[in-house]
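Colleagues,

For the teaching module next term, I've prepared a clean inverse folding example: a structure given as tokens, and then the sequence designed for it. I'd like students to try predicting residues themselves before seeing the answer, so please don't circulate the second half yet.
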């Protein structure tokens, strides 16, 4: 097999076009567009393979596309559809090694396919280059002629796609053109992120407190990870996964809340800034909620159980007076439970002697592997040991996932209890960055951050608690906060405005219409920030009918 250059020629063409062939069956595009997405790239590969007398050389020239092919096969296995997204490239550089290690064990099948197909291709390419035999001039001339004809026909067909499919874009719909385009966007965003310190250096909120400095106040934002509302007892789940929060006085549960992104590195910065209600790319010039509290005279702290990754989460967190990433001094493999964050919160509150204090607590929550997120003695639902992340083990996966929600119930209720014990005007907000798919339907989707979101990745919990002292001092805000609990909201759009409004902080960047504790709060159409940082309505982000049915079944507004 390795001795025949002709055999290698055709094998290389098949390998290069393999993802395009698979995506014919996975992509939700018109059939004509899917045919073009095979024909145009395949004909170009065909033509390129005729250039050298040894096709193995062309295979090496096209190595970047081989890498894209291998990456795409893995993602198709993981998510079932869509090309390599911008966020996927960014996730490679912002996902910590622990998460990568936890995920790789569940991608062995996809990795095996990649190894068999593309490592074999590399071996064949080496053999082709070393082989004394060459493709005949006649073979190459004939194949180049046929390939050129195929290019002309497929290019004409692709041009016709603009008329057949009005939404067609080459940079979105033809693999690997879309991947090259997305890689360019990822590089651009990485460069702009690296320049953030200089582009945001002169930014100020012009924030001031409208309340006397002598009035003590505490505000806490707790950001969860991968928690979906449907598994919270507070949201009507069949299991009572949130018994402690259910008994918490003055807790307001927002019933219809969704996130604007299914990725952590995009959702959390929106939660910790005003970006959710503004064009997303303004993030490169703005600072976060902690800076607004700093300017208003608050002492601030940021505590995280996630690792630094050079993203805006780090940038916004490090605006605080006190910053602690509890995994910083620990080995990559170290597993730390979120209750370690409670020790930091307790230590800070123990030092509290009045004044104005604001804390942001970033949990590891319900991130896979689920049964590593809570101590064994807090496992209420068993069996919770997961043999493998496969649909046939969904019962074990759900048990373990529900245990993470039960553990989050403990962590958040403890924070509320500690803040309440200070006996001052205070408010605590909790929400999650995004939800999670756990083999919930016939698509057998798992995890989050898929190129196209799903209902389970979008619907998240949103909770607000206020102390008795706060309720006594600001009854109007508490009434407004409670009266809006059924309003459909986007968490990333309202959290910044709501917390600053509750704290009585004045800044041109706070808009009362987005502040849930304001009498001027109103419903806004809910948006999703897609892979290209464009804000789209829910009916334009790739949700399927099965997702729309879930929205309706759970009483969540769509769109």
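(Answer key — instructors only)
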């Amino acid at each position: 097999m390795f001795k025949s250059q002709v055999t290698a020629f055709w094998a290389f063409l098949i390998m290069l076009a393999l993802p395009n062939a698979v995506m014919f069956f996975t992509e939700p595009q018109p059939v004509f567009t899917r045919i073009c997405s095979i024909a145009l790239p395949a004909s170009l590969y065909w033509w390129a393979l005729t250039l050298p007398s040894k096709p193995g050389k062309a295979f090496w020239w096209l190595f970047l596309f081989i890498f894209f092919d291998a990456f795409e096969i893995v993602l198709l296995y993981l998510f079932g559809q869509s090309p390599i997204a911008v966020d996927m490239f960014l996730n490679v550089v912002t996902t910590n090694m622990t998460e990568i290690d936890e995920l790789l064990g569940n991608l062995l099948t996809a990795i095996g396919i990649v190894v068999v197909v593309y490592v074999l291709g590399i071996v064949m390419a080496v053999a082709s280059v070393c082989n004394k035999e060459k493709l005949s001039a006649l073979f190459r001339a004939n194949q180049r002629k046929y390939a050129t004809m195929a290019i002309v026909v497929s290019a004409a067909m692709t041009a016709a796609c603009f008329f057949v499919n009005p939404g067609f874009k080459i940079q979105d719909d033809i693999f690997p053109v879309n991947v090259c385009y997305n890689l360019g966007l990822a590089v651009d965003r990485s460069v702009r992120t690296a320049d953030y310190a200089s582009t945001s250096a002169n930014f100020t909120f012009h924030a001031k407190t409208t309340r006397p400095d002598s009035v003590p106040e505490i505000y806490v934002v707790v950001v969860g990870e991968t928690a979906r509302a449907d598994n919270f007892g507070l949201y009507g789940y069949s299991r009572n996964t949130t018994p402690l929060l259910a008994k918490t006085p003055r807790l307001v549960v927002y019933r219809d809340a969704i996130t604007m992104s299914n990725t952590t590195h995009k959702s959390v910065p929106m939660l910790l800034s005003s970006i959710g209600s503004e064009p997303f790319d303004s993030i490169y010039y703005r600072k976060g909620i902690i800076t607004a509290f700093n300017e208003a005279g608050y002492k601030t702290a940021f505590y995280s159980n996630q690792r630094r990754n050079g993203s805006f989460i780090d940038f916004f967190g490090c605006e605080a007076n006190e910053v602690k990433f509890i995994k910083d001094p620990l080995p990559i493999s170290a597993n730390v439970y979120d209750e370690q964050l409670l020790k930091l919160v307790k230590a800070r509150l123990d030092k509290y002697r009045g004044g104005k204090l604001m804390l942001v607590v970033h949990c590891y929550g319900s991130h896979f592997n689920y049964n590593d997120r809570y101590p064994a003695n807090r496992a209420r639902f068993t069996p919770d040991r997961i043999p493998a992340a496969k649909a046939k083990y969904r019962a074990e996966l759900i048990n373990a996932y529900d245990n993470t929600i039960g553990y989050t119930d403990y962590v958040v209720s403890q924070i509320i209890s500690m803040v309440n014990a200070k006996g001052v005007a205070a408010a605590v907000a909790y929400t999650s960055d995004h939800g999670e798919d756990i083999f919930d339907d016939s698509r057998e989707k798992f995890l989050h951050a898929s190129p196209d979101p799903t209902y389970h990745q979008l619907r998240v919990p949103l909770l607000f608690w206020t102390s008795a002292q706060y309720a006594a001092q600001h009854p109007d805000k508490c009434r407004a906060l409670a009266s809006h609990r059924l309003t459909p909201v986007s968490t990333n759009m309202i959290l910044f405005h709501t917390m600053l409004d509750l704290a009585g902080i004045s800044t041109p960047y706070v808009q009362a219409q987005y502040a849930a504790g304001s009498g001027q709060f109103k419903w806004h159409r809910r948006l999703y920030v897609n892979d290209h940082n464009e804000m789209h309505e829910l009916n334009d982000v790739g949700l399927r009918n099965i997702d729309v049915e879930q929205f309706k079944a759970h009483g969540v507004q769509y769109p």
